[in-house]
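Predicting holo structure, (S)-3-Hydroxyhexanoyl-CoA bound.
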Amino acid sequence: MTSTPDAAPVNCELRGNLLLVTVDNPPVNALGVEVRRGLVAAIEAAEAYAVAKAVLIVGAGRNFIAGADIREFGKPPQMPTLPDVCNRIEACSKPVIVAIHGAALGGGLEIALAAHYRLAVAGAKLGLPEVLLGLLPGAGGTQRAPRLIGAEAALSLMLSGKHIGAQDALKMGLVDRVGQSDDVLTEGLTYAQQLLSEHAPVRRTRDAQGLADTDAGAAAIAVARADTAKKSRGLLSPLKIVDCVNAALTLPFEDGLRFERARFIECLDSPQRAALVHAFQAERQVQKAPETRSAQPRPIASAGVVGGGTMGAGIAVALLDAGLPVTMIERDDASLARGRAHVDKVYDGLIAKGRLTHDAKAKKLARFAGSTSYDALAEADVVIEAVFEDMAVKQAVFAELDRVCKPGAVLATNTSYLDIDAIAAGIARPQDVIGLHFFSPAHVMKLLEVVVPARVSADVVATAFDLAKKLRKVPVRAGVCDGFIGNRMLAVYRAAADHLMEEGASPYQIDKAVRELGFPMGPYQVIDLAGGDIGWATRKRRASTRDPNARYVQIPDRLCERGWFGQKTSRGFYRYEAGQRAGTPDPEVEAIIDAERERAGITPRAFSDEQIVRRYMAAMINEGANVIHERIALRPLDVDVTLMNGFGFPAWRGGPMHYADTIGLPALLADIREFEKRDPLFWKPSPLLVELVERGETFASLNRAM
Ligand code: 3H9
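Done. Tokens:
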């Protein structure tokens, strides 16, 4: 079905003895106030027309209904509310049938649950993903879903936020029928006529018996409660979902609805909801880089990867998973064999976890080829270089690519910090050179920094965004500078952590404070995981260009000099017992830190966790502001998406720039000015932060303005 631009958001049409109600609110038929009013009016009309014997609700365009309109959250409520709409549908005295195609999510599925009969066609995606937005299904979903499909299945849907297909929904009892074809209107009309001819009665989900076995319900709730307490650290809505299902089990329907409404409003008003909705919207905004509007992407049907190390292999897997044929180049047979082995290992890991079959692996690998000759890349549409991080090595690779690749091929580098303008300048086609900065493991991590050098043509940038979509990555447009967006910020906030450590906080306290903020790991756990030798090599390489007046904390070097590189050597900032990934604090490390403090002439002092977090976050945000100020990132939201998708920043805090707005920019600037008194070289307030404070504005105002 297609939608017309000025159509009313809900259209009613009599089709014989059936009232056909079409929700038509592009792009995703969200349940904004006009749609809610339209749906109530449609039900009233159905009640009023004697000729209408039943109601069929469908969605126009690509989806049934994607849920409540998230743009209305945080604004004054407008009547009718979505629970009112669902209740009105359920109360209708004539059978209400929904026919679902595309997304029936959140409030969209709640509309379906309130209807009396449900059909879905192949390709339908059903789910209650509110939890991912810091919410719970608040239009009766927590009360109706368990009654319809039982507490366990309902909890699983609501706590995971996952989408399920039509067949699974049928098995679960979420829908009554799966259409024979994907023509949702025809399927819906046929089903409705059949129900009418059978004199099918009005059948209300509130009366369904999914919770009749109260022992099974109570057991599912107990398991979910224990699991949620463990897994959903810091999150507000998951436990409330469990409470609501408990209410469904223990309270009459109307009371359960009231209970749900109160919990929903608590979630709606929480900063977590604001942060998670920001994260959702920001992830969509980053896809719309200026070049994606001004230029057409080049076609990408085949890819090459230069380098078969961990990064190259991960990138190859990401490309293979996107269905592309991939050619890997290595300098000799032994290196190529290692590259293949890396790719194999990734897939074997998935097979071991039951996420991939041997057959599927074989099919993917049938598209994988390796060569020691660059000539094998002659037909590739895109080549991604992932060789050793050294300018001369990279330039040599690009000279080869320039020699062998066909005109128009996109030539990408996966460098983490080298000057891509310099790489591009070395060859005859700088307009084709771009940065595609993947994060390790490259086939898993969602973030892809699309680094845009000065001379690249717009269609190459558009191609990079198009490729990111194929790879199911979240692309963020970044400018060229040392470390681009993410690693540049990381260098600064890690340095701030080192300063704290040298001044008296233990790495264990810093890690704990950062974890409590919501990060999965603290900075020293991350170093131990990645390998301390990586940062050490970079520090040594940069030693000659470092500002001799800048503060340099030597503690990490002292550990590396002992060969303590982290998990892989069983010692780093932590000690790791054989086979254990969790480390334990190491008194010898603490002694080394003490000695270093003494050598640096620092008398250690105590820090509270709050002081640690304030300083750590101030460093991160200040550098984020610099990155925006220098146009390395387009907007604050690009920084947020980068940190959330590549650096473990908790989505429920919305990224560092959103977080900065929540704590207030004047307070943040005051902190930075205070730190500046002790270390003016490190702590220079970002001009953008100063400007925003002077104007009384927020980072969010910049997201809106651009
Ligand atoms: C809820 O329902 C609460 C209720 O329980 C209780 C209430 C009382 N509202 O993702 P796309 C926009 S909470 C407004 O790129 P796709 C989106 O921002 C809601 N706008 O497309 C984008 O805008 P733009 C529970 C929305 O095809 C455009 O649509 N529902 C909404 O890749 C296209 O989006 C959810 O959490 C919305 N609800 O994927 C579902 N959804 O063009 C959230 C999307 O300006 N939505 N937009 O950038 C999705 O998961 C995906 O959008 C969907 C389509 C799968 C539907």
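Residues 1-5 have pLDDT under 50 and may be disordered.
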